[in-house]
Amino acid sequence: MSTAVVWGQIDEVPGVTIAYSRYDSGVYVGSPGILILPDGSYLAKFDEFGPGSAYRVAAVTNVYISKDKGLCWEHLARLEGVFWSTLFMHKGDVYLLGMHKEYGDIVIFRSLDGGKSWTTPKDGKSGLLRTDAQYHTAPMPILIHNGRLWRAVERMGIPDKWGSFEAGMMSAAVDADLLDAASWTYTNFLPVPEGSPIRHWLEGNAVLAPDGKVVDILRTGCLGPVEKAAVLEVSEDGKRISFEEKSGLVDMPGASDKKFTIRYDEKTNRYWSLVNPMLPCDRNDKRVGKIRNALAVVSSEDLRSWKTHKILLYHPDTEKHAFQYPAWVFDGDDIISALRMAHDDQYGGARFHDANYLTFYRIEKFRDMLNEESDMTPPQTE
Fold first, then answer.
1. What is the pairing mode between strands 306-314 and 322-331?
2. How far apart are CA 197 and CA 230, in angstroms?
3. Which pLDDT belongs to residue 102?
4. Is 368 helix (H, G, I), strand (E, B) or coil?
5. Which of 16, 153, 217, 315 has its CA 20 to 30 A from that of 130?
6. What is the rounded distance in angstroms from the CA atom of residue 110 to the CA atom of residue 103?
């Protein structure tokens, strides 16, 4: 683990600090993830990026555990060769599924002991899943449907060109060996249509739509202060993905060039997400994707019409403050989240994108917000 990275509570940062890295170290906090183990413990993770890290060669991911519902955290494991990964559990085992570096091969790691020790992907039988392109992703959710695990992924259409992302979906049978490359099926990879009002799409969510179809819902790069998500349809056999522009672009707060995770809650029959919306007070700033200074709870009945319930966190400064890449899961009546946070410290803080904190944040009794609707006014800050 980089000597720049520590863990433990630091005063005046929202939530509980899991890990911290000084901005001037050149090691930044990326790709948060969170998971509840069967014994009630929480796992959280982040990967290191920035000029002081090895993210372009063999990226490093750090895993933490809390045995007291997120109040205190302990460093559990350091893994080399995994980046942008999803932390999830399947049939009692813990997995990390992502790339081995920035724009690298698709890899999967497995832990049989709750995140302490991990397998190493060496070949197609041990977790090295795909090596034929420059792949991209983020800690996106795993969907289980129709006897398969579904997970969105992208690849670069033009080598080394950011934004040339082609959207796809990978899937495997629930009883398959997930470390075996032969277990996984892939759709085609779809570029943004020529002439589209969006410039790029990335970081897709595998979601079961109300009509029973698997869809891939991605953040988009839009021109101007517009926030839209792209909805792509996946065939039942997991081999085709398609997009209809007239019906496939939907308004969604925070969907413009900011990562979000969508999960379905059976008790409310709604889809929920934590997002970084662009509040009216910040709309004069044209850098839509760089405005990450607010965190909000939103929900939808149909994945097309979204309601903003509450602005949870806000800071008026957009250059050095961000509550971004919220990884989250339901925990009974609550939502628990791990945030990639840029915030003040004694060394001058950080740049919004190049975060210095991994923080744990709990949203209590989130369903009580169902009848609330935010007027998009930020909460008062001291």
1. unpaired
2. 11
3. 98
4. helix
5. 217
6. 21
Per residue in 1-35, is it b (16+ CB within 10 Å) or e — as a string?
ebebbebeebeebbbbbbbbbbbebbbbbbbbbbb
Query: CB neighbours (10 Å) of residue 371?
Result: 7
Amino acid occupying residue 245: E
Map residue 289 onto helix, strand or coil. Answer: helix
DSSP state, 247? H
User: Edge to edge, what strands does the sheet with 93-99 contain?
Assistant: 83-90, 93-99, 106-111, 128-130
Q: What is the pTM of this model?
A: 0.95
* Long-range CB contact pairs, 213-219, < 8 A, 24+: 214/143, 214/145, 214/150, 214/169, 214/238, 215/303, 216/152, 216/167, 216/168, 216/169, 216/241, 217/262, 217/303, 218/152, 218/167, 219/255, 219/256, 219/257, 219/258, 219/259, 219/260
The C-alpha atoms of residue 27 and residue 358 are separated, in whole angstroms, by 12
pLDDT at 8 over 70: no
Closest CA to 304 of 190, 191, 194, 215: 215
As a whole number, mean pLDDT of residues 46-57 equals: 98
Give residue for tokens 């009883």. Answer: 175
Alpha-carbon span 2 to 78, nearest angstrom: 10
Number of residues that this document lists for the chain:
382
For residue 311, pLDDT beyond 70: yes
Q: Are 363 and 297 in contact (CB under 8 A)?
A: yes
* Residues forming beta bridges with residue 197, ordered by sequence position: none
Q: What is the pLDDT of residues 118-130, one digit of tens each?
A: 999 999 999 999 9
pLDDT in tens, 12-40: 799 999 999 999 999 999 999 999 999 99
Name the helix (H) or strand (E) containing 246. helix 245-248
Backbone CA torsion sign across 188, 189, 192, 194: negative
Q: Which of 3, 117, 2 is CA-nearest to residue 59?
A: 2
Which residues are 42's β-sheet partners? 36, 66
- Tens digit of each residue's pLDDT (9 = 90 or more) over 67-92: 999 999 999 999 999 999 999 999 99
Beta pairing class for 28-36 and 128-130: unpaired
